[in-house]
Amino acid sequence: MSIEDYIPTFAVEAVYDLTPESLRRHGIKAVLVDLDNTLIAWNNPDGTPELRAWLDEMTIADLPVVVVSNNKHARVKRAVEKFGVDFVSRAMKPFTKGIDQAIDRYGFNREEVVMVGDQLMTDIRASHRAGIRSILVKPLVTSDAWNTKFNRARERRVLAKIEEKYGKIKYQKEI
């Protein structure tokens, strides 16, 4: 394991800061996005008006958004169906199963896809393995579901190594 496998291509404050213009400037034509603490707070499965506005903006700009989540089908479906967003559940990040499934389903070009997520250990690592760019966002809420707490502890150690070698990750307002 190399710490470089956990370094995101970009880091932004929140997924809602990503604009169609900034994505296109970087040649991005499709957005894969984690669900919990990236798109919605893990403990608020109904989302927010801000989420609705961001998804509408992406739809109008003809930039497909596909949720790629490690959660089970029923949980992801409940969270995204009212927004009309397609998803891949049980994605098995940090492995590439879910990312590959989404790319294959839509015929996306890997050079034109980005994975957005709040965890180095799953989202960013899976992106590296899948050969696509990544965007790290700050978690929407500071608490985590019980099964994420283990990853966060490991993530703190990896982050400390990244910061020791490269300095702090700087979160931008857009890419």
List keywords for this structure.
HAD-SF_hydro_IA; HAD-SF_hydro_IIIA; six-stranded parallel β-sheet; Rossmann fold; hydrolase; N-acylneuraminate-9-phosphatase activity; 6 strands
Describe the structure.
This protein has a single domain, classed as 3-Layer(aba) Sandwich (Rossmann fold). It has helices at 20-25, 49-60, 73-80, 97-106, 120-130, 146-166; strands at 10-12, 30-33, 65-68, 86-88, 113-117, 133-137. It has six helices and six strands. The protein is 39% helix and 14% strand. A six-stranded parallel sheet has the order 1-6-5-2-3-4, with helices on both faces. Helix 3 (73-80) links the parallel strand 3 and strand 4. It starts with 9 loop residues before the first strand and ends in a 9-residue tail after the last helix. It has 175 residues and is of the alpha/beta class.
Outline:
The protein is globular and about 40 Å long.
What is the helix fraction of residues, given as a range?
A: 25-40%
* Biggest sheet statistics: 6 strands, parallel
CATH superfamily: HAD superfamily/HAD-like
What is the architecture at the second tier of CATH? Answer: 3-Layer(aba) Sandwich
* Count of runs of 4 or more consecutive helical residues: 6
- Any idea how many domains? 1
Which SSEs are present, and which pair or pack?
Blueprint: E1 10-12, H1 20-25, E2 30-33, H2 49-60, E3 65-68, H3 73-80, E4 86-88, H4 97-106, E5 113-117, H5 120-130, E6 133-137, H6 146-166
Parallel strand pairs: 1-6, 2-3, 2-5, 3-4, 5-6
Keywords: Hydrolase, Magnesium
Cofactor: Mg(2+)
Organism: Streptococcus cuniculipharyngis
